[in-house]
Design brief:
heterodimer; A: MetI-like fold; 2 domains; 16 helices; about 70% helix; globular; B: mainly alpha; MetI-like fold; about 0% strand
Chain lengths: ~300, ~325
């Protein structure tokens, strides 16, 4: 950063326009260099997944061939894309998609309803519940996981989809984000609908929810990334293929004596596609100021 | 208003008894709040309270015929006597010390660049966020190959830039380097969120402040130091605290790439907890570790509150 500032200082003596021009060049150059460093590992992953020889992948790593494939093939994807058998990454991907859709879908409904009531309801204990929710935000998942494993295994929930979905639907962070978004909408909106005789649920469903696309999109992206990347919880509660998510399945590559990088790369690319699609779909409404508003919370 | 239905005549509302309406509304509100409250209670509050109880018992992972006994603070005393616990705490502190400048610096730099009115700004914003949506397992696949010893890409680049003077580094196999290697891939994966928070902070600084500074003759560096930096103070606190808390919860990348090794140089608090709880099957002991982790996180969060209050936000 100081480079940027210094370059500005040096150009101050020149006429304003050329100073602005050279600053632009420095900024554009830095952005391109950072972009190159940031994106090249991902590009390498994508390229390597198209090479079918795992020894070739490692040999290529030492040169610029890591970023080039001369005869691309989809054979790795064919190898790992099965729905059953030893390399059933198609199945694991499907499992993860089921978990993702259910958690985010239910999470949007449950957390937005709660956030709405906390913002506009008339319940007596509203303020108390809100401050309790904010306090709960401090508890990290890692520090409740030990008793939670006992609880779900006593309830016979291990190795199910439900055990990977239900515990993570309600979340203090997302309740708070929805609360904040709803609370800043104008009071007239609520009052006018109330005058028209609409019930609280109806006001939520027909007026506030349609207006909250930025909140829904932001929570979808944050919750989606969080759910998709779960690792500690699923390794503790899944033992068989039945509900194993793709993250856990990919990690098993590392347990082997020699890693099948070709398969690991293809499975990784498979894992990236859905979350990338989710991000691209909602990115337009992903408002950064909305995330930033949690700063003061 | 989006409500399409014709409004009820005012009399219809008025003739319904007030208490009836209020009670209906109350039931609806409780109904809308209930799912979240029930789920939070069962899956967050109960296990949280249970962890304090379990921490004071000799609870095993698999139920045994002998009853679970209350053993007071024995688990905590054992933890404090275990060198490996102190090693893990020290490692996590080292990790925090390195990740704060690397990750927050990268986030701040990219946010400052993206805040400028450059062409393709939104494209770059999306591009810079890509690592943040990449799962940690995938990050491990990628960096596992980048770190290959001795001829992996990272060693090749360093060898090329140094003209062969720097010998290849065994990134994940050398106890002196392993934690720093974990820092590199963790910062690459996670800086995107902090970048978003910084961008929001930068947007929150009113343009009038910059205009006023310009009229007063402040140059770009002075404007950065006297307008941008003070305006970002709460953002800095938030970003540093979130990064510190994340750092203390370090687990996945270590579990996949190094399993705490070599020579316990990447053992972390959470990895230690999972190992004692599930490999050694001492769930009570592991719960005690989780209580300690919670206390650490709580202290960091309270420090943040104090700092924010001092900055008067």
């Amino acid at each position: 950063m100081s480079d940027l500032a210094i370059s500005t200082l040096q150009t101050q003596v020149k006429p304003e326009r050329s100073a602005v021009g050279s600053l632009r060049i420095v900024q554009t150059a830095s952005i391109l260099v950072i972009a190159l460093v940031i994106v090249s590992p991902l590009f390498m992953l994508f390229v390597a997944s198209l090479k079918d020889d795992r020894f070739q992948i490692l040999a290529d790593m030492g040169s610029f061939r890591a970023f080039w494939v001369s005869n691309p093939t989809l054979s790795n994807f064919a190898e790992v894309g099965n729905l059953s058998g030893e390399l059933a990454f198609g199945r694991y991907l499907l499992n993860s998609l089921i978990i993702l859709a259910s958690t985010v879908g239910a999470g949007l409904i449950v957390n937005s309803m709660a956030g709405f009531v906390l913002a506009w309801g008339s319940l007596r204990g509203r303020a108390l519940i809100l401050s309790l929710v904010i306090a709960l935000y401090v508890i990290p998942q890692e520090s409740i996981i030990m008793p939670l494993v006992i609880m779900v295994s006593r309830a016979g929930m291990t190795d199910t989809f439900a055990v990977q979905i239900v515990p993570w639907i309600a979340s203090p962070l997302y309740i708070f984000l929805f609360y904040q978004f709803f609370a800043q909408l104008p009071k007239e909106l609520f009052e006018a609908a109330q005058m028209d005789g609409a019930s609280v649920f109806r006001i939520y469903r027909s007026i506030f929810l349609p207006l909250s696309l930025p909140a829904l999109a932001t929570v979808s992206i944050l919750m989606g990334i969080e759910t998709w990347n779960q690792y500690l919880w699923p390794i503790l509660v899944t033992q068989t293929d039945y509900a194993r998510p793709i993250a856990v399945a990919i990690a098993t590559f590392f347990g082997q004596d020699s890693i099948y990088w070709d398969r690991a790369m293809a499975a990784s690319v498979l894992m990236m596609i859905p979350i990338l699609a989710l991000y691209l779909a909602f990115q337009r409404w992903f408002v950064s100021s909305f995330v930033g508003s949690a700063v003061k919370g | 208003m989006t409500l399409q239905q014709p409004a009820l005549p005012a009399t219809a509302v008025a003739t319904r008894p007030a208490w009836h309406r209020d009670r209906g509304r109350l039931f609806q509100e409780i109904g809308m709040l209930a799912p979240a409250v029930a789920l939070l209670t069962i899956f967050l509050i109960v296990p949280f309270l249970l962890s304090f109880w379990t921490a004071m018992t000799n609870q095993p992972l698999v139920p045994r015929p002998t009853p679970v006994r209350f053993i007071g603070f024995t688990n905590f005393l054992r933890i404090f006597k275990d060198d490996l616990f102190w090693t893990s705490l020290w490692n996590v502190s080292r990790f925090t010390f390195w990740i704060l400048p690397v990750q927050c610096g990268l986030a701040f730099a990219t946010a400052l660049l993206l805040h400028q009115k450059l062409p393709f700004r939104n494209f770059f914003r999306g591009l810079f966020f890509l690592p943040a949506i990449t799962s940690m397992v995938v990050v491990c696949v990628i960096w596992g190959t980048l770190f290959q010893y001795p001829t992996g890409p990272l060693n090749q680049v360093i060898g090329f830039l140094s003209g062969g003077r720097i010998q290849p580094i065994d990134w994940l196999g050398d106890p002196n380097w392993a934690m720093f290697s974990i820092v590199l891939l963790s910062a690459w994966q996670a800086y995107g969120f902090q970048m978003i928070v910084y961008l929001a902070g930068l947007q929150g600084i009113p343009d009038e402040l910059y205009d006023a500074a310009r009229i007063d003759g402040a140059n770009a560096f002075q404007r950065f130091w006297h307008v941008t930096m003070p305006g970002l103070r709460p953002t800095h606190v938030f970003v540093l605290v979130i990064t510190t808390i994340q750092a203390f919860k370090l687990y996945t990348q270590v579990a996949i790439l190094t399993q705490g090794g070599p020579k316990s140089s990447t053992e972390t608090v959470v990895h230690y907890m999972v190992r004692t709880g599930f490999e050694e099957q001492k769930l009570g002991y592991a719960s005690a570790v989780s209580v300690i982790l919670f206390v650490i996180v709580l202290i960091i969060a309270l420090v943040q509150r104090q700092l924010l209050r001092r900055f008067d936000v």
